[in-house]
Amino acid sequence: MNLKFKVQQTNGPAARDKSNRPAVKIRRVGVLGLCVLLALSIFALNANAAREAWNVDITITPDKEEAYLVEETAMFDIEIKRRGRYARLKLEQIEATFHDEATHVTLIQIDRGRYTYTTPPFADEEDPTLDITIRTLRAVRSIQRLERVIEIFEKRIEHWQSIKERIRHKRLERLIDRIIAIYQRLIKRPQATIDRISTRGIIGHNSCTIDVVNPVKYIEQMEKGLTTGSWEDLTQAAATLKEMGKLAVPKLSEAFMDSTKNPILRKMYGEILAEIKDSSAAEPLIAVLNDLGQEESVRAEASYTLGDIGDEAALNPLLNALNDESEHVRSSAALGLGYLGSSDAVARLIEKLIDPGLNMRICTIRGLGLIGDSGALEPLVDLLDDECETIVCAAILALGAIEDDEAVDPLLNILQIGSTKKQIRAMGALGQIGDTKAVDPLITFLQGEDEYLVMESGLALAQIGDPRAVEPLEKAIEKVTDEFVRSELKKAYETLTGEEYQG
Fold it and tell me: Among 69, 102, 122, 493, which lies 20 to 30 A Cα-Cα from 289?
């Protein structure tokens, strides 16, 4: 069968049909000659590939023991030896693949026997096994030549398909389809030869398993869990990101900064960053805090997380946030400064004790307590006379956290005149401070009738550790009727004496 055709388009007026389309003219070309050349080249390549080459031994050593991140540069030493001696092979002889067929790896040689590549995304990163295959240079070049032949045929197919789209003659369309089918059959022959050469040209093979983590996978799983309402999937993905620790920080920071994501998710990303406590997250968090166009709740989360991370770079941004229009942001900044623990923030926080927002005042008090600087003692003692019981209780807790003996007398005064709620908070604060001046007043409450005050006084006495409280504590254990209170008093007894209660 003689199929030698070429399509030539002309543009003159005589070349146009009734529909004003360009006419198409077909001429003969030498396709058969190409087929003969292809057959001869395949025969020659098969002959070359049939020769077996010497074998080599391969050792693959990852550069680090800890996990690589997806899309991180992984570094390997690949030792290739022939008969016990180092073999210097060209890079094009080395093929690197993973078990996942969709995962491709391009090695870059940076030194003798030293290679890098970027770890790809894996469908399943539980077992990312890197396979290294060495082929003879002759086989590699033969494959490359055949691939170029296939590429030529593919371009010819594209060419004929483009011609077919421009003609409207059924007979010519059928003819072109036959030409395309011939090219497609011709492609199968060199492809089969490539497969044979690829196998027969192997002179060495080895593999190693590397530990690769993919934070993006679990960030997407959190997003999917929120969308589908699967709280279990969401929390499991969050727990995995926490376990990844510092490895997850760059992608979590990126997700936290993404204003297109759900604010609930962004807050959760911030909470995870707060638990990981890596300073590399400080810069993106500061950027979110300073961006007034960001969601209020997300900026507030950034404030809190910055303090929890504990990077000193957060000090000034958090101090500035104390004046934010949003009380939510101001409150979170006050707490953030508390977790940051810098004494440089004490004076500014004291100024905010008169903020009009109740939540802001409470968070400011908590922040001062967390810092624990005695410079805040007097302003906090002054708050013990505040009309708002919530403010008083917050001030009592902060005084306990500061653990300054100067707070003992004001707290003992609360024991005498305060409400039950205030008395309970004061007992806890006195226990934290640990001054023995509080022992006798606390023993008085230990002997009282209100069993919850009895319990709190017993726990405070255990913290102080004065032996005078042992006998009253034993009597209180025998006296109380509430089982929970009794169990707590027994724990207090054990803390105080170092021995289990035997009564």
Answer: 69
